[in-house]
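Hey all, quick one. A colleague (J.T.) asked me to put the cytidine-5'-triphosphate job into the tracker so the inputs and the structure tokens live in one place instead of scattered across chat threads. No bug as far as I know, just bookkeeping. Sequence used:
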Amino acid sequence: GRVVALIPAAGMGTRLGLPVPKAFVMLRERTLLQRSVSAALASGVVDQVVVIVPADLAAQIDAEYADRPEVTVTVGGAERSDSVRAGLAASGPDTELVLVHDAARALTPPALFADVVHALRDGARAVIPGLPVADTLKRVDTAETVLATPDRSELRAVGTPQGFTAELLRHAHSGGGDATDDAGLVEALGVPVQVVPGDPLAFKITTPFDLRMARLLLDES
Ligand code: CTP
Ligand code: MG
């Protein structure tokens, strides 16, 4: 069956604070989005990429990928989950597996896409990459008073690509609702979500510090 990678790139990048939407910021000669599309295709496990962009950039990005039949461009929405739903609507009815991957995770190694798809092929219906957390985490109240220290060994920092059977992800998104993490909607259905080992290079470029880190990592390679 077909594997489709949805790449939400329709956010404004408010926390990064540059004049251009985050997915269109350059990292060396290529934008974050271009890097994420290349990684998905280089994985060898993705048949179609659906790129989800801001409305005012759709014509330009569509033209950029005009000679790539495996790349489709569609317009996103106000919240990330609206953008994922737009991507689902643009995926063919013959889609068997869907990966959702933040354009902002621009240094994600292609092998991570393959790892997620392999776990789905092994029978999981929802797969997310996760890493152990290095810092001690505290639960706090609105006054920043510590309420609890969760046991770090039970916690994972999760990212993307997140993989699902197409049927499950469509069902999870059918009720609308917002979630920064698609797996959260699947959990709400009571369906098990499997964590596979993540990769630190799949970190999300969110702040100016993250962009500096990404540029330094590229300088090093
Ligand atoms: N995204 C999207 N549609 C939205 C919001 C986010 O497609 N309405 C995408 C972003 O482009 C990004 C990914 O979802 O690739 C993860 O979101 P985030 O890191 O929060 O990016 P932004 O929303 O752009 O950043 P910020 O929250 O700082 O504005
Ligand atoms: Mg955001």
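Adding what we noticed when we looked at it: The longest strand covers residues 2-8. Residues 208-220 form the longest helix (13 residues).
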